[in-house]
Give the backbone structure.
Amino acid sequence: MGKKRIAQTLARAGLQLGVSTVGRMLKERDNKPGEEAVSSEATGETTRKGKPVQAKEPNHVWQVDLTLVPTAAGFWVPWFPFSILQLWPFAWWVACVVDHHSRRVMGFAVFKKEPKSVDIRTFLGRVVKRYGTPKYIVSDKGRQFDCDAYKTWCDRKGIDPRYAAAESIRATAVIERFFLSLKDEWLRRILIPLDREAMQRDLSCYFDWFARHRPHQGLQGRTPREVYDGQPVVERAKPKAKEVPRSELIVRFHEGRRQLPIVELRGAA
């Protein structure tokens, strides 16, 4: 964690520390300055006319994209033809839908090979049926999205499809930043399963922790679930030195996975 995210995590547990204080403590511990966490701030999405679409509330703007997840047998094999195969058992294709306003993962799907447009439409249909219809869905111009069948499906659902320009990095910044977190915090720290159901369980485990326990700088230290449910920012006053009670910092792990910490503060006897 960067020093700002550490401060936000401790604040959620009830211990209010400044970012500079956390940085100083880290520096005293290992003589290395704390690293700033990369902000996931993004202010809008690209429309057909190049103007930003602002996410005003949950389920207003969704972002959808695909990412490749190599297994232990994939990508690193140097000889032909395995070095160019991007399908199971060498890799999984993972599709995710992220709500721009809250950063919550609305749904995901795992494919053995690059999905076609009909696969993406079926996946999005399940997400829409569960959570309702968004006003906009933002995507890149991949062949699954930039086709007549996808645009017709969006029109039928009352969704306005938006596409990120090739030179734009802001339009899909939220979901790209999410994929970076998913891989750095989780997928690169576990053994990627070859069984699809096992892969879905591992992804569900991370997404649940991500929504309920991981604070976000772009959300003022709140979690995606808190923002999606409309919970306000909790302002905690910093106690004076003489008023600080003896406390014990408890770290437990989501579903027993040490890569997914949950920090709590309890009064010490």
The CA atoms of residues 86 and 263 lie 38 Å apart. Residues 196-212 form the longest helix (17 residues). The chain has two domains: 3-37+239-267, 45-220.
